[in-house]
Amino acid sequence: MPYESLPPFIIMGTMLALMGAIPSFLHKTVYGKPKPVMQDAFDYALAERDRRVLEEAHVESPIKHGPIST
């Protein structure tokens, strides 16, 4: 009967989907962002620049405000 062949296909399809979903979920859980795909030297250089700029901004973070006037 045709419906008897459906469960194996459903199981195989589910397992194929989980093979991609589980590593993606774990990577996002551990690192907090999606896995970088298709990144080249420019993307890595840009990420390094962003990290350096954020560090410099963090070092200079004591914001000098004048007295609060109301």
TrEMBL record:
Membrane topology: Single-pass membrane protein
Residue ranges crossing the lipid bilayer per the database entry: 6-26
GO cellular component: mitochondrial inner membrane
Top-rank taxon, per record: Eukaryota
Cell location: Mitochondrion inner membrane
Keyword Electron transport tagged: yes
Keyword Ubl conjugation: no
Cleaved signal peptide residues: none
Keywords assigned: Electron transport, Membrane, Mitochondrion, Mitochondrion inner membrane, Respiratory chain, Transmembrane, Transmembrane helix, Transport
Chain's role: Accessory subunit of the mitochondrial membrane respiratory chain NADH dehydrogenase (Complex I), that is believed not to be involved in catalysis. Complex I functions in the transfer of electrons from NADH to the respiratory chain. The immediate electron acceptor for the enzyme is believed to be ubiquinone.
Matches recorded under PANTHER family: NADH DEHYDROGENASE [UBIQUINONE] 1 ALPHA SUBCOMPLEX SUBUNIT 1 (PTHR17098:SF2), NADH-UBIQUINONE OXIDOREDUCTASE MWFE SUBUNIT (PTHR17098)
Family to which the UniProt record says this protein belongs: Belongs to the complex I NDUFA1 subunit family.
Name of the molecule in the record: NADH dehydrogenase [ubiquinone] 1 alpha subcomplex subunit 1
Originating organism: Klebsormidium nitens (Green alga)
